[in-house]
Design brief:
The complex is a heterodimer of chains A (111) and B (116).
Chain A (H helix, E strand, L loop, with lengths): L2 E3 L3 E5 L4 E8 L6 E6 L6 E6 L3 E5 L2 E6 L4 E6 L8 E8 L7 E3 L3 E6 L1
Parallel strand pairs in A: 2-11
Antiparallel strand pairs in A: 1-3, 3-8, 4-5, 4-9, 6-7, 7-8, 9-10, 9-11
Chain B lengths: L4 E3 L2 E4 L5 E6 L6 E7 L6 E7 L2 E5 L6 E5 L5 E5 L8 E8 L11 E2 L3 E5 L1
Parallel strand pairs in B: 2-11
Antiparallel strand pairs in B: 1-3, 3-8, 4-5, 4-9, 5-6, 7-8, 9-10, 9-11
Classes of the chains: A mainly beta (111), B mainly beta (116).
């Protein structure tokens, strides 16, 4: 089967750096997505990693280690607007069409 | 460039009723996926439509059905509503013909359904 684990909630300070972890168990692997979701809104795409290593996009970076079944999302120079849930998702191995989602990590930013 | 749109934004129904939710995909996208998201949970895959056919289905009962039209827009129908069907229903669109194995999905704003 497939399983995705993320911490339920994290708190960080404005201007700081935070790392949100995601571990997954799959029978195969075809990439990992990170999405941001503000309360009551739809998820918005942040990143897609299929190869090991760190990919940087402005203040957000995403890391993948396929051998460890592990990914993290790194947010730098935190802003109040970064308060949101961050979800990781992997394609379901019986079909590339279906995404399996973690429950999301609620990030709370304090002044 | 219009993104994914969904209607209505909010809906209140009573148990046993039927509901239809609508989705128009992002320009250039031909594939539509539907998800159910309960509060504090990740989205749960309902099904995906491509070329007007259901291509993949998640673990949802037959009360959940859908349709895709020639213009790639899609509908989600839920019959015999239960209290537990109260959730945010998300539509996501993607390109199904690029040849890549996995395509990024882009979400609409969702329809919040409350069943009383």
């Amino acid at each position: 089967g497939q399983n995705i684990d993320q911490p339920t909630e994290m708190t960080a300070t404005e201007g700081a750096i935070v790392q949100i972890n995601c571990t997954y168990q799959t029978s195969g692997f075809n990439g990992l997505f990170w999405y941001q979701q503000h309360a009551g809104e739809a998820p918005t795409f942040l990143s897609y990693n299929v190869l090991d290593g760190l990919e940087e996009k402005g203040r957000f970076s995403s890391f993948l280690s396929r051998s460890k079944g592990y990914s993290y999302l790194l947010l730098k120079e935190l802003q109040m607007k970064d308060s949101a849930s961050y979800l990781c998702a992997v394609p379901f191995m019986d079909s590339n069409y279906q995404l399996i989602w973690g429950a999301g990590t609620k990030l709370i930013i304090k002044p | 460039d219009a993104g994914v749109t969904q209607s209505p934004t909010h809906l209140i129904k009573t148990r046993g009723q039927q509901v239809t939710l609508r989705c128009s995909p992002k320009s250039g996208h031909d594939t539509v996926s539907w998800y159910q998201q309960a509060l504090g949970q990740g989205p749960q895959f309902i099904f995906q439509y491509y070329e007007e056919e259901e291509r993949q289905r998640g673990n949802f009962p037959d009360r959940f059905s859908g349709h895709q039209f020639p213009n790639y827009s899609s509908e989600l129908n839920v019959n015999a509503l239960l209290l537990g069907d109260s959730a945010l229903y998300l539509c996501a669109s993607s390109r199904g013909t690029s040849g890549r194995a996995v395509e990024t999905q882009y979400f609409g704003p969702g329809t919040r359904l409350l069943v009383l």
